[in-house]
Design a protein that fits this description.
Helix content is 10%, strand content 24%. The chain is elongated and about 165 Å long. It starts with a helix and ends in an 8-residue tail after the last strand. The chain is an alpha+beta fold. The strands form two sheets. Strands 1, 2, 3, 4, 5, 6, 7 and 8 form an eight-stranded mixed sheet that branches.
Length: 288
């Protein structure tokens, strides 16, 4: 096995996080964008870790002979981190890293991404943070600004299985469901009671008929003739009443009303006896 093969490893089943396999990404402003992914290796996968440790040692030997001027650094930096510990900046790893070895591999060139049958994956939504797969990694020595260590170069990636998405990613079915619902969706109830907005009446429209006990009578809109009301209300003309100089009204089927003498009416003319000067009852002549 030559030195190039000694520094390359194809993992067993691992989990991918912070996936940037189709578009290059820069972790910080000013950095060169690269294709990359973080690889979570179960601590129970001893075989993969043995191959990785051997590949890192081969990269260190290559660095001594070709990169670091024949001197081996006392403690060369490696890309492997303990997911049960903390990151290089002191922050704890996420809960998905517990029980795993963690490393990040990157490349300036886009690498092949295939499925179980070695077919290229075209649909980018099939590859996401949380998916399971296998990754080819090439370890290499570097010397940068006084730092000497071993980095991880990203090679081809093979998807093995779907997994619980990391970072809040959900599918369309989870988001919307089969009937327009979904995660966190609650249909808004119809407003009831106070603060309801009644239907708006347009200019010149007839308001809908109102029914039911205790409802207010309908009011006509501007420019409409008010409907006939069975009850007498404020501002309505009262029916003609006899008295006060008005002629009595007689309706069909009603008994004739008797004339009533009201205030301001003239009493009927009385017959006067020309001899005695007294009123004659019944219009007759007194004493005749």
């Amino acid at each position: 096995m030559n030195q190039v093969d000694a520094t390359a490893v194809t993992t067993g089943q691992v989990r991918l996080s912070f996936v940037h396999l189709f578009q290059p990404h820069a972790n910080q402003p000013g950095q060169e964008p690269k294709y990359s992914t973080t690889i979570l290796i179960p601590k129970s996968d001893y075989a993969t870790m043995q191959r990785i440790n051997a590949a890192i040692e081969a990269a260190i030997q290559k660095g001594v002979s070709a990169t670091w001027g024949g001197a081996r650094p006392p403690q060369p930096k490696t890309p492997i981190h303990d997911g049960d510990g903390v990151r290089p900046n002191g922050d704890p790893f996420g809960p998905e890293c517990k029980g795993h070895w963690v490393l990040t591999a990157s490349s300036k060139q886009q690498q092949a991404v295939v499925d179980m049958n070695m077919n290229p994956i075209i649909n980018q939504t099939e590859i996401y943070s949380g998916v399971y797969g296998r990754v080819n990694i090439n370890f290499f020595p570097y010397a940068n600004s006084g730092n000497r260590g071993v980095g991880a170069g990203l090679g081809p990636v093979q998807k093995l299985a779907d997994g619980e998405p990391l970072g809040g990613r959900i599918s369309a079915e989870q988001a919307f469901g089969g009937n327009g619902g979904g995660v966190g969706y609650t249909p808004a109830p119809a407003p009831q009671g106070f603060d309801q907005i009644p239907p708006q009446q347009g200019y010149g429209q007839q308001p809908p008929a109102q029914q039911g006990y205790g409802q207010a009578p309908q009011q006509p809109q501007y420019g409409q003739q008010p409907p006939a009301q069975p009850q007498q209300g404020y501002g309505q003309q009262p029916p003609a009443q006899p008295g006060y100089g008005q002629a009595p009204q007689q309706g069909y089927g009603q008994a004739p009303q008797q004339p009533q003498q009201g205030y301001g009416q003239q009493p009927p003319a009385q017959q006067i006896d020309p001899i005695t000067g007294r009123s004659l009852p019944g219009g007759g002549v007194w004493g005749i």
